[in-house]
Write a structure and sequence with these properties.
By secondary structure, the chain is an alpha+beta fold. The protein has a single domain, classed as Deoxyribonuclease I, Chain A (4-Layer Sandwich), CATH 3.60.10.10. The chain contains 6 helices and 13 strands. A 7-stranded mixed beta sheet has the order 1-6-7-8-9-11-10. A 6-stranded mixed beta sheet has the order 4-5-3-2-13-12. Strand 7 and strand 8 form a beta hairpin. The N terminus is likely disordered.
Length: 274
């Protein structure tokens, strides 16, 4: 499994709106490359407002456009620079991007935005075949401890987007399990979030058995979240898996101002460290 390292970003002295724990709010969202259904219009500006309304400390994003040389010519309101930088601006002062799919006009992949310093990060290639480029974006986030806010602890965060075909997903599940076992201490707090395309709802049982991590929505409400399609969510494709946390609250964000932003619904969860 190849590994692509991402440039280290030193922690800022002040990471605005960082609040001492006791809770950590996270969100995950497949943003559909910042374009509406059938790519008729740019929805990045609205999407940025919705994400800020969630007030999440760490955001896991999939289908993030790192570069596309033609969008600026086609769409009059397409922002300059990478999408994760545009979305993170002034709110999440630390962000990383993992380039997965590369083509002539640009590339897209996963991203993690954080209010807390990101100490190190890298992108692991878990592509099952040459027709779907997929990766696991891993970063270590340094957060104030629950006790007094002056000591710090590290939380490992993995952002994933699995493939559309069952055989490829099985290979990617195996790669994820091997990666966590080899690269992350077994007792470290861990969050794995993203779009797993797990149509048959088989992943949670496997990850629980192999890695002792659990779906946040199942822990909170007893059921996996329905997230696709966003207009009438029926399938449970998007997940938030946690280890070392209790789940205080979980929500699926769809309808109202979330309509027509992506084909997936956004998920969020409020966590409390054990």
């Amino acid at each position: 499994m190849a590994r692509s390292y991402i440039r280290y970003q030193p922690p800022a002295l002040i990471a605005g709106k960082i609040r001492p724990m006791p809770t950590l709010k996270i969100a995950t969202y497949n943003i559909h490359k910042g374009l509406s259904y059938f790519k008729r219009r740019v929805v990045l500006h609205e999407l940025r407002e919705r994400l800020r309304e969630l007030d999440a400390d760490i955001v896991f994003l999939q289908e993030v456009q790192g570069e596309h040389t033609l969008h600026g010519e086609r769409y009059h309101n397409y922002p300059q620079g990478a999408q994760h930088d545009f979305l993170a601006e002034d709110v999440w002062l630390h962000s990383v991007y993992g380039k997965n799919s590369v083509y002539e006009a640009g590339h897209h992949g996963n991203a993690i935005l954080s209010r807390f310093p990101i100490l190190q990060s890298f992108n692991a290639d878990v592509s099952a075949h040459r027709f779907e480029s997929r990766g696991l974006l891993h970063c270590e986030v340094e957060m104030p401890s629950q006790q007094n806010g002056t000591e710090h602890k590290r939380v490992h965060c993995l952002c994933a987007h699995f493939g559309l075909f069952a055989r490829g997903r099985r290979a990617q599940t195996g790669a994820l399990i091997d990666y966590v076992r080899n690269e992350i201490p077994h007792d470290a707090p861990l969050i794995i979030a993203g779009d797993f395309n797990d149509w048959r709802n088989q992943l949670s049982k496997t990850l629980s058995s192999e890695l002792h991590i659990h779906d946040a929505f199942h822990l909170h409400g007893g059921k996996l979240a329905r997230s696709f399609p966003s207009r009438l969510p029926l399938l449970r494709l998007d997940r938030i898996y946690v280890r070392g946390f209790n789940v205080v609250h979980s929500s699926v964000h769809t309808g109202g101002n979330w309509l027509r932003l992506s084909d997936h619904a956004a998920l969020s969860a409020q966590l409390k460290g054990i």
